[in-house]
Design goal:
Strand content: 15-25%
CATH topology of the largest domain: BirA Bifunctional Protein, domain 2
Radius of gyration: 27 Å
Distance between the termini: 52 Å
Helix content: 40-55%
Number of helices: 13
Number of domains: 2
Largest sheet: 8 strands, mixed
Shape: elongated
Strand order of the largest sheet: 1-11-12-13-16-10-9-4
Length: about 425
RNA sequence: GGAGAGAUGGCAGAGUGGUCGAUUGCAUCGGUCUUGAAAACCGACGUACUGAGAGGUACCGGGGGUUCGAAUCCCUCUCUCUCCGCCA
């Protein structure tokens, strides 16, 4: 959520910046400002009224103690008239506050000025493209064929046990998964991230805290008996650690990482994008999360990009970094970079990470604040990114490193796998 | 699943109808003392909204009620803890 105060004080700027996200904020921003003005007026009236009533009540107490019963009785009758008025005004306050919140939730985060203009994924700007795309003397197999050939993943078995999108990893396939998880966690730790092992099931309050609720309700698995949700990303539990918390500036930046299974219903997706490992209902991901000061969050963002880039380099995968345009960014992000790796058999780039700065948008909803060195309480900035999501990395490793007799494991992973080739 | 207890400021823990937004201790911050530190002593120390400011208002798990007045009484919901049962 944006801050009402910021909107009021920077109306034109807000409307201008929202336009980059193709959000016409003119009407809604006017409404918010108008309602906020009403809120303030109403509150002034209400506060004045309550102040009078409180004063009177206090005097009744004093009169009673002094034994002046009749005067007290007269004062009691006077308070009756405040009651009705107070009720009306506080109902009005509640209504206005509810409306403002409803409207604020509909307004996306403001993109930073460095976010490129654009409508869709085609308008994203390629910041960097590194690593060489492998060439083959034979027709490379897609990862789903390789997985079958070397008995690494059984998709049909997953269908039997759970349903489509729940693969069963076997043998070296399972080992490679575990190796990747450990590799990513170790790399994160080496870069100063504290490892967290959070619950993978969260309550509704946490869902609201990070914004999965109410907007993306249908995308999460929900257990109605206990009203709990399966997390779509470790971002949810790890960020919610800081819900309703006031940190001190000295603690920042907080750098956490977590491996969890992630669960996504992916309602509405279909076609070639869901083939094999491209889109799953359950997958493994290592997430990095930072809580920072507004002054330092841009630096943090760059450090996170470096971290993710380092992982891809060590895995020797061809990758590129995209600066997302206004139209392709998520609702809550202020600036976002995607990492994609090239998948040699599918002959396309696969998104493996998305590293975003949410500035204070998420923190405002979470009520995650910090006390600065002057003792003033301010909203933190929050950032997060995948480092990394496993399935598409797995797919790219199989496809890019295939030979006619096996699949080569990149050097960095060999100590984690315990083998250097799958054959 | 059954029975009981509880929810108060960063933490611990008082407060059972009227200067209680809340005693006290610890923690934290500032100061005095000290070559420095510790100890001791003095002081500060919740959050939000509102107001130029003085100040005002709200908040003692959430919601509702009784009352002129509620942290305190009543109803209700949620959560936590203990014991029993079940169980990795």
């Amino acid at each position: 959520m944006l801050l009402t105060k910021f909107i009021t004080e920077n109306k034109e700027e807000v409307i201008r910046r929202l336009a980059k996200k193709h959000f016409d904020g003119k009407e809604i921003i006017e409404k918010i400002i108008d309602l906020d003005l009403q809120r303030r007026t109403t509150q002034k009236e209400l506060d004045a009224l309550l102040a009078k009533a409180n004063q009177l009540s206090k005097s009744i107490g004093a009169l009673m103690q002094a034994g002046k019963k009749e005067e007290a009785q007269a004062a009691k009758q006077e308070t009756a008239k405040y009651k009705e008025e107070t009720k009306v005004l506080s109902a009005k306050m509640d209504e206005i506050e509810f409306l403002v919140r409803e409207l604020l939730l509909q307004v996306p985060n403001l993109p930073q000025d460095c976010v490129p203009e654009g409508k869709s994924a085609e308008d994203n700007v390629i910041e960097k493209s590194e690593g060489s795309i492998p060439e083959f003397s034979f027709e490379p197999l897609a990862h789903w064929d390789l997985a079958k050939k070397y008995d690494l993943i059984d998709f049909e078995l997953g269908v039997k046990i759970s349903g489509a999108g729940f693969p069963v990893y076997k043998g070296k396939g399972a080992q490679l998964q575990r190796a990747l998880i450990n590799f990513f966690l170790d790399e994160a730790r080496k870069n100063g991230y504290q490892e967290i092992m959070p619950p993978t099931v969260v309550n509704a309050a946490s869902g609201y805290g990070t914004g999965q609720l109410p907007d993306k309700e249908g995308q999460m698995y929900h257990c109605p008996i206990d009203d709990l949700y399966l997390i779509p990303t470790a971002e949810v539990p790890v960020t919610n650690i800081y819900r309703d918390v006031i940190l001190s500036e000295k603690e920042l930046p907080i750098k956490n990482c977590a491996y969890t299974q992630c669960f996504r219903r992916e309602a509405g997706s279909y076609g070639k994008d869901v083939r094999g490992l491209n889109r799953l209902h359950e997958f493994s991901k290592i997430e990095i999360v930072r809580i920072d000061t507004p002054e330092h969050s841009k630096v943090s963002h760059l450090e996170m990009l470096d971290h993710v880039e380092g992982l891809l380099k060590k895995l020797e995968l061809p990758y590129r970094i995209l600066r997302l345009c206004g139209g392709d960014m998520s609702f809550t992000a202020a600036l976002c970079f995607d990492f994609e790796v090239f998948s040699s058999a599918q002959k396309r780039w696969l998104e493996v990470s998305s590293v975003s700065n949410f500035e204070s948008y998420q923190a405002n909803r979470l009520k995650c604040r910090y006390k600065n060195l002057e003792g003033k309480t301010e909203l933190c900035h929050t950032l997060n990114g995948s480092a990394l999501a496993l399935p598409r990395i797995f797919a790219a490793l199989l496809e890019n490193n295939q030979t006619e007799n096996g699949i080569k494991i990149p050097k960095a992973l060999v100590p984690y796998c315990g083998f250097d080739e799958i054959n």
